[in-house]
Amino acid sequence: MVVLHIISGGEIGGSKNHLLSIVKNMNKSKIKNIVVCFIKGSLYEEAVKIGIDIRLIEQKKRFDMRILKDIEKICCDEKIDIINCHGGRANFIGYFLMKKYSAKYVTTIHSDYKDDYRGSFYKTLIYSNVNKFVLKAFDYYITVSDEFKEMLIQRNFNKEKIFVVYNGIDFNKSIPKLNRDDIIEKYDIPKSNHYVTMVARLHPVKGHKVFLKACSIVLKSFKDVFFILVGDGSIKEELIQYAKKLEIFDKVIFVGFQKPDEFLYLSDFTVLTSYTESFPLSILESAFYKKTVISTDVGGISKLIEDGINGYLIKSGDYETLSIKILSLLNDKNKAYNFGEQIYYKAKTNFSIEKLCDKYEEIYLSIINGGL
Question: Which of 47, 104, 312, 347 could disulfide-link 54, Cβ–Cβ 3.0 to 4.6 Å?
C-alpha cells in the first residue's frame, strides 16, 4: 500500500510533529509513505534529515493550482492508494485532486477549523469557510481526540467515516543530557529557584493573556519565579505590551520558537491555557520529562491529565483558578514531583508512538480492504 501525505509545510507545531512521527515510525513493510509539501520550511528540512521521502512542490500563493499537475504525476507514478491531507491548505488541494486522480481521500483534523484563524476576520471569513466546504468531500476523517470526532458529528459529518487516533511520542528514546546552569547561561535567563513554562505558538486561541494575568496574581505573593513562553507568532508584540501593562514584563521570558526540551527540563511544571485543542503534543512532551501540566479542560486533554492526581484542569479563561493552582505547585515541591511521576507513567502506557502508528496502519488497511 502506498499513502501520500499532503501538508503545506509551513507548520511548526503539533501537526508537523504528528505527521513526521507516523511516517518515520510506521511499518515500512506494510505501508510506503510519501509526503508532499508546498513550503521549504522546518518540516521539509527535518523530513530530509531523518530520511523521509518528501517531495517539495513549491506553491507561490495559497490558491496557486499549477501544483496539481505535479502532484497528480506523483500519484500516477507511485500508484498511490490513499491520500491523507493535513490542514486547510492541503485539504483545498486535495479537493481538486479528487477530480483528477482516483484514490481514497482522508484528512486528519488537527484543530477546530473554525478557530484556526481566530483574531483575523479576513482569514476566518475566507480560509475557514473554504476549508469547511472542501472537508465535506473527503471519504474519511481522522481526529486526534474523541471530542473532535463529536465536534464533526455535531456539524453533520458522517460518524461512520470518522476515526480517532490520539497523539503519541517515543518514550523509549534517551533523555538528553542537560544541565540547568548551562541552559540558564545559553539563553541568558535570570537565575531563580523556580521556572514555569508554556509551550504554544503565539496565537489568540492559545490564551496567553489568561496565563499572563494569572502570573501577575502569583507574583503578588511568590516572587522567586520566572515564566517562560516558548513559541512565536502574530501576537508577540501584543503579549509583550500586555505583560508590561501588568507590570510583570521583567518576570516573563520570550524565547521565541525553540525546541522545548531544555525549557521543559528547566521548569517545575508547565501550563497550557488554550481555548480549544485536540490532544496537544506539548502535554506529552512535558510528561516525557516527568513535568506535570496545569491545563484548560478542552479537547482530549482530560484523557491524560487527571485533576488533582497527575496535574490540574481548569476552565478556559479562568485566570484566578489558574493562579491558585500555580501557587499550589510552587509552594509544594513534592506535589509537583509526584504529579510529574504520575503523568509520565500514564502517558508512557497509553500514548506511545507505537500505539499511534498501529492505529494509523489499522485504519489504512481497513480502508483498502473494504472494511470501512
Answer: 47
